[in-house]
Amino acid sequence: DSIATEDEGMGSFYSMLLIVLVKLGLWVLCLGAARKKYVSSRSPSSGAARQVVKVSDPTLEALAQDHWNDSLSNAVAAVALLFALSTPALWFLDPLGAIVISVYIIYSWYETGKEQIEQLTGKCAPDEFIDGIRDLAANFDNRMEVDVCRAYHFGPKFLVELEVVLPRDTLLFESHDLGMELQYEIEAMEEVERCFVHIDYETRPYDEHVVSKVPELRERIRTQMSGSIGMHSV
């Protein structure tokens, strides 16, 4: 009976070892497919260098993490079983290993969930990404000045808001076309979901979105803008 029990135990061990190898292979495949590299497009006129960026697929990353957790839990169970078969007094290693792995899996999925929630709630983009967008816009046209550059998560990708300044005498159709071309340029980047470009004729010492929420400030700004329009219409 003891020989049969040991044979069954070794059969279980080899089965778990096979599962570990298969799961590790799936983990490598999913992780490689999830973390693709793309070359961000840059127009010749912008003068900015082409940049290789990494874009992650959250679904494939979640599958990769699931395969990794499965391989880890089966590996610990296999090692605990091997010790228990060789030394019956170490029977407690199996439940102890299960507790440790359970705590690790709970923590790893907590971190994954936290990251996804931050992205869904509009977490600000990394500084290096915002700086790259600002440099691209600043080099897009020599008449263009970047006033405000914002970027924040829209899921795994980014939503970009740009406020750029052109000379006052720039024709309407020309400023519109420049803004659209800049929008197309930024939206061509794989990590960008959507880009909004606002064209202005001067820099503003205030946040225009804040002005819309304060009636007194909005009225004062409207008066200033009306005076400016009247002066240029004379």
From TrEMBL:
Q: Give the source species.
A: Trieres chinensis
Q: Where is it found, in Gene Ontology cellular component terms? A: membrane
**Ranges annotated as spanning the membrane:** 12-34
First-listed, main subcellular location of the protein, grouped into a coarse class: membrane
Q: Which GO terms describe its molecular function?
A: monoatomic cation transmembrane transporter activity
Domain spans labelled Cation efflux protein transmembrane = 13-120
Record protein name field: Cation efflux protein cytoplasmic domain-containing protein
* Cation efflux protein cytoplasmic domain location: 126-200
Q: Where does the protein end up?
A: Membrane
Pfam families of this UniProt entry? Answer: Cation_efflux, ZT_dimer
Annotated signal peptide: none
Membrane topology category: Multi-pass membrane protein
Keyword list (alphabetical) reads: Membrane, Transmembrane, Transmembrane helix, Transport
User: In this entry, which stretches build a coiled coil?
Assistant: none
